[in-house]
Specification:
Jelly Rolls, five-stranded mixed beta sheet, Immunoglobulin-like, elongated, about 450 residues, mainly beta, five-stranded antiparallel beta sheet, 3 domains, Lysozyme-like, 33 strands
Length: about 450
């Protein structure tokens, strides 16, 4: 569905998706004695309803259901035998007594049968009022006739459809509920229907409002799926995070309706350098959406909540909360594999699939009896004893004897770790005296073959 927003100034609340109302009483094709019909084309969807009138003075003079049914049969005969159509051009017809007729076949079954009513007929239903609603007859539709039309539209249009808004149709701007004259040059459905009831205001008008009131407003809801962020960062450091939420409500999340991911604990805090992350595009019910965003850690060390929840700006907060925490450490230096202080040959391949990685990605290499180190260089602010930590994402194909070479003031110490375990956290390699300036940790691939070694992040603290 294409929704014109900028040109119409429609408020976000009007995009609320809706659930159909109850089915009104309808005279089926067997009720009015329809001839068998087949061969009509089908549509891919139903996104628009176009209102017509039959422009027949005699049809306004119907005395009741039986009389109107005969008129519908007469129109079908004309369409089949004279026009050569596959069936009646309209999907629905309504008389002044409030009788609704299933005109073109398939309407009651929910089949997407294409009509022949508006000159385009693409994904639209045609509902025709039996009468002549402009000069010279100027019939005025009674309340029962209009209420049945509103009930019909509210029931038949699919879940997710709204009577508000417009889009391009037949090379014209046409509402999702509109009159025939907006699609092509015609007086139909008559001045007493358009613009009197179907106005030029795509965000309101008697008919659109009446239909909207008969449909159940949809609801916002969200469930938490997954998240990825470091468990520890240096004070003031930048890092990337991602949170995946599922739309398990009935309302579509649009960027134009300001559906966003918002910070919590407390609500709308800017602790991490931002407080809202917008939805990108359109997220339908039952779809997942991953928010990926850059953060800046607080300047003061401590453990802080990293909690996020969905919000529709100006409407409500809703759904589950993605709960997490991050330890902000002081005086530490972290070098990730995608930082400027990291170097490795092209044999170290970048990857993102492990959920317990630090930051956005990591590097891996097959173990081999060659000298090809991944190297982290940390620019330490002062000379002192540092705890040195390594972070890796674990996996069954990792080496159990991955060798980290820690360079320090007293020389180089080799620390062997099992990368099949203890992933997704900072693992202490040891503590050594180090001088201010550049200091290195190297990860060797020269160990038992048949595995991989993973180079992710190093921290000096």
């Amino acid at each position: 569905m294409t929704i014109a927003v900028a040109t119409l100034g429609i408020s976000a609340s009007l995009f609320a998706q809706t659930t159909p109302g109850p089915q009104p009483t309808i005279c089926s094709r067997s009720c009015w004695g329809a001839r068998a019909a087949s061969g009509c084309q089908t549509m891919s969807a139903l996104t628009r309803v176009i209102v017509h009138h039959t422009a027949g003075a005699s049809q306004w003079n119907s005395t009741g259901l039986s009389d109107s049914a005969a008129m519908v049969r007469s129109l079908q005969n004309y369409n089949l035998d004279v026009n050569g159509y596959c069936d009646i051009e309209y999907h629905w017809m309504i008389d002044k007594h409030g009788n609704i007729f299933e005109a073109r076949y398939g309407g009651l079954s929910g089949a997407l049968i294409r009509g022949a009513h508006d000159g385009n007929n693409s994904n639209s239903h045609g509902a025709s009022l039996m009468g002549y609603f402009h000069s010279p007859y100027n019939h005025v539709a009674p309340t029962v006739m209009l209420n049945q039309l509103y009930d019909l539209i509210a029931w038949r249009m699919p879940s997710g459809w709204s009577p508000y808004g417009s889009g391009t149709y037949n090379s014209k701007t046409v509402g999702f509920l509109d009159g025939h004259r907006k699609v092509k040059a015609t007086a139909c459905p008559g001045d007493n229907i358009h613009p009197n009831l179907i106005t030029e205001n795509y965000s309101g008008g008697t008919m659109r409002n009446a239909v909207a009131q008969r449909r159940t407003p949809s609801v916002n809801n969200a469930s938490f799926v997954s998240k990825s962020h470091p468990s520890s960062v240096t004070a003031g450091a930048s890092f990337s995070a991602s949170i995946t939420m599922k739309n398990n409500g009935s309302k579509v999340w649009y960027d134009v309706t300001n559906h966003k991911l918002g910070s919590q604990s407390p609500q709308d805090n800017t602790r991490w350098g931002l407080h809202r992350v917008a939805v990108a595009g359109t997220i339908n019910p039952n779809q997942n959406h991953t928010f990926t965003f850059n953060c800046t850690a607080p300047a003061t060390p401590g453990t802080y909540a990293f909690d996020w929840k969905m919000v529709e700006d100006g409407v409500e907060w809703f759904g589950a909360t993605a709960v997490g925490s991050i330890s902000v450490v002081s005086g530490s230096v972290i070098v990730d594999n995608n930082s400027s202080g990291f170097a490795a040959s092209s044999s170290w391949i970048a990857a993102t699939s492990s959920a317990d990685k630090y930051g956005a990605d990591y590097r891996y290499r097959s173990t081999q009896a060659v000298s090809d180190n991944a190297v982290w260089t940390g620019n330490l602010p002062s000379s002192k004893t540092y705890n040195v930590y390594a972070w890796w994402p674990q996996g069954s194909n990792r080496s159990q004897t991955a060798a980290y070479h820690v360079v320090h003031a007293g020389g180089t110490t080799v620390v062997t770790v099992n990368q099949q375990a203890n992933g997704g956290k900072w693992n202490l390699l040891g503590n050594w005296s180090m001088s201010a300036g550049n200091n290195q940790v190297k990860l060797s691939c020269w160990t038992t073959t048949g595995f991989i070694v993973v180079a992710d992040a190093i921290q000096w603290q």
